[in-house]
Design brief:
- The protein is an alpha/beta fold.
- It has one domain (2-188): Rossmann fold, CATH 3.40.50.
- It is 38% helix and 19% strand.
- Helix 1 crosses helix 7 (175-188).
- It starts with a strand and ends with a helix.
- It binds flavin mononucleotide (FMN).
Length: 189
Amino acid sequence: MKVLGIAGSPRRGGNTDLLLAEALKCAAGKGAGVKTINVCDLDIAPCRHCDDCLETGDCSLDDDMQLVYREMEGADRVVLASPLFFMGITAQMKAMIDRCQALWARKYRLKRPPLGDLRRRKGIFIGVGGLRMADFKPAITTVKALFTSLDIGYAGELVFPGIDEKGAIAGHPGALKSACLAGQKLVED
Ligand SMILES: Cc1cc2nc3c(=O)[nH]c(=O)nc-3n(C[C@H](O)[C@H](O)[C@H](O)COP(=O)(O)O)c2cc1C
């Protein structure tokens, strides 16, 4: 069982990173192999809509997204984690998701498994927002669209509004515990 955590916050060691690290630590405690990538560390250009992928199922842009495709193909579980930036996921995470158009093409145009094989994959979304009334629906809609395209079953979300200062999530009663439980559940089911 391999779990891939994909973090989307440019604020390293911030709330998203803390939640994701806790979820993956607890997944590892259940025997899963875990790996984290932060898309902000990577060179991922935005999709150019060249449509090359509609013919090949591969993206012709040669950058760090090629590494992300490989990691996704090898994963059984995915934890996608991002803060809200202007209602949605961060630009860096969105660029990564848009580049999954090549995987969309494999599934819907080329009738191939988007991630190369037919294993049962599942994933969750972890989100934080600074506003007390933070609305996670736009972010969740984007993540669900991604998971549907990649044949990753959407197994739910863990979202925390009202978390703004760096590291504030550590003072939230129960947040890290919830992340731990979510990581465990993801690999047990
Ligand atoms: C550019 C920018 C846009 C933001 N937009 C929102 C927003 O729309 N809704 C919200 O609730 N918080 C918003 N926030 C606050 C962050 O989501 C919040 O500070 C979060 O805790 C950051 O998580 P991190 O520590 O993992 O980076 C925004 C922050 C920045 C820098």
